[in-house]
């Protein structure tokens, strides 16, 4: 192993050149680098060498990491039917080109005068998502859908001065964990039952649980379990009767074919940007948006940055800046709305590029292909005796629950067998929703060719 | 032959200016940027159009009014806007103090863009992600070395989210001990990121803020006054944004711990500390590092980032799950954490940044990490020494050496010339420099905060100093020149600031802009 240290100057650190260090020390009047640390008491100094391996040269590092990464089986190596909040979609090459540009990749928090382009692309992202959800205000996104939902809930609670939120029991358990932790200790999360036939929210239970304490009703379309919530207007009307706010979480890949929630009663729309041109990255591709109407009572409750457009001193020039900066924790610390900091701007830029490429036709075709392919998968799987791919009766988007209860195998066993055939089966729901028994959540998007689906069906049939 | 004269002291810079329209203005009906896959004929024959099953009320009635633009025109638009963005790769990026804008090695982008990283699904079986889990576990071990903590979670997606996770752990800990109602206060300091206070408030805590004493240290006498059996936790950065290391930190943590509070350490300013001093010995129960600061992952225009959250053994069961553990030769996910706060970010945080940070550490090794800290501190003290020579500049509080950054003041310059730190900020853009003032409130008058990291050469630092010196000379001789800046940026100062404050005028999206400007045309 080459000793990088022996070359003395590290390639990442220019001032490891001894002559330069000596000169700098001389200029500042210090005898040694150690002197510069005089402010740290001796008993706090760490005098041992860190137990971390010696430096690798770039080539060695490359060999080492390639070997380690090769132990991963990527979804490009197999056919994957995993979804449930992070989905495999086609990522246009232009999306990767733009988000790997060093200009955007290495920018951070500069002002308009240095980073005008960053401000404009984020304003454009807000504007593009606004068209998709048919709302006039969209934030610079937060960490993920779960955080967007949690913040939407806190916004609703502040607006209504109420502290209970109703959420369907079919929500993703991980998302629920995040919402619960983010809303505690102020806001009580109450789960609403679902109809075992359709999976949809049980409206009688909702009526029972709605009260003058209810800040908001939150539901998702499509739901975590893939079915479409059809009684949306009724849910929104019931919430309104109790002066509660309606929050709807969406998967934006559905919005070329499905009505945006703003048109069926949603006051706040939130959701996940990852389907819009962002790789899954083992979950690191997630990014959550929030959208509302352009009303002061909503805008002033956003914790996020909101970029607005304004003229500059030069005629014809677009300038940008923060709308109501005084809302934020950056301006007011603990008195600001929740907190804001580094979140997921690069994914906002990428989602903007994606929507600009797709246009209205692309989004419509995407939605349609997803529906055709996923319905085809359900149709074919349903033909296998003892398996029901339409566990919930109704319409699905992208995902569906496959019921294996009539087989002698657990989902875990089936998924193991599928892996051996180069297939990642759906998410095992037996722990997340024990009442469903041996069921799995399958995801089919525009990337799944007919032959991929046929291969799955053939494999499952062979285990019978 | 006469040589070309390159004697000018400041860079003769001009940023790209493309005068790009808003993307909607590129719309041409019928153009296409990309065509998504369509279903095969057999699928269509079997299923039909796929969308008529959607109940009518939920069928999209009108298409989203997205622009229609050919692929190369979309690309060109974004490339032009990228050129109007001054990323760290392009400038002597010492001006965004507290942000640790260091070099993000390109080789790490090669790893991060491998399909063995990008195309992993967070729910795939752990047997199929052994490489990723190995990297995560090893980074955990390195972080333990660097901090002295006993376990790390990489779930937080940023420093703010790590602070929130730590405030959540504080609450869960006191709940487990039946003291959550009684302990309802968190103590922080003014020279810290606003999110320390803000995230504690989100978790329901009253926030008590310590101000600095005459030397710039958090006031220890004040701490003794406010600490009580109501104290749930104490959160602090050390050094704070002044670059002053609080040498009495152990006394601080002792006072809080003896009162039953949890001490948690915001290590956003850790770049001068690697291999030098650790959280554990300073008496902290928890700490976090920003992988996008100290550990070089690119800042990505503002995320995704990552917060590495470390705890001592007694708090391990409170971590967000799952954490990665080694079991013989295999790596596994452990979600069996008795008191877990649940989750803060979905799945496993931002794994591509775990990978980049791991690769960065491997490229440096133990000695290299110490070189990072020492060089960052050397660079900072050099910059500090030279800036104090500039007329009108000062560095309030204790004299003597600082660690990795300094919060300076132009108080004297403003008094002498009327030029403020905001004026200088705009003028610095003319010389290709980032420049940052301070978080609010401005405790230091006319503040600016510089953090040179280890990534810049002496010549780079001299360039930054020369630009500041040049602007200060202008301030004393031709202040209007500074006031009217910038001249060489992509953009000019915004007028009508009520467009950001007045609901009738703000436009957060293009559609809102069109509605509001149309309305004003009608009324005017």
Automatic annotation (TrEMBL), chain A:
The keyword Oxidoreductase applies. It comes from the Bacteria. InterPro entries: GcvPA (IPR023010), GDC-P_N (IPR049315), PyrdxlP-dep_Trfase (IPR015424), PyrdxlP-dep_Trfase_major (IPR015421), PyrdxlP-dep_Trfase_small (IPR015422). It comes from Virgibacillus tibetensis. The gene is gcvPA. Keywords: Oxidoreductase. Residues 12-459 form the Glycine cleavage system P-protein N-terminal domain. It is an enzyme of class 1 (oxidoreductase). This is Aminomethyl-transferring glycine dehydrogenase subunit GcvPA. Its EC number is 1.4.4.2. Pfam families: GDC-P. One of its GO terms (molecular function) is glycine dehydrogenase (decarboxylating) activity.
Automatic annotation (TrEMBL), chain B:
It catalyses: N(6)-[(R)-lipoyl]-L-lysyl-[glycine-cleavage complex H protein] + glycine + H(+) = N(6)-[(R)-S(8)-aminomethyldihydrolipoyl]-L-lysyl-[glycine-cleavage complex H protein] + CO2. Residues 373-476 form the Glycine dehydrogenase C-terminal domain. GO terms for molecular function: glycine dehydrogenase (decarboxylating) activity. The keyword Oxidoreductase applies. It is an enzyme of class 1 (oxidoreductase). InterPro entries: Aminotrans_V_dom (IPR000192), GDC-P_C (IPR049316), GDC_P (IPR020581), PyrdxlP-dep_Trfase (IPR015424), PyrdxlP-dep_Trfase_major (IPR015421), PyrdxlP-dep_Trfase_small (IPR015422). Keywords: Oxidoreductase, Pyridoxal phosphate. Residues 171-295 form the Aminotransferase class V domain. Its EC number is 1.4.4.2. The glycine cleavage system catalyzes the degradation of glycine. The P protein binds the alpha-amino group of glycine through its pyridoxal phosphate cofactor; CO(2) is released and the remaining methylamine moiety is then transferred to the lipoamide cofactor of the H protein. This is glycine dehydrogenase (aminomethyl-transferring). It comes from Virgibacillus tibetensis.
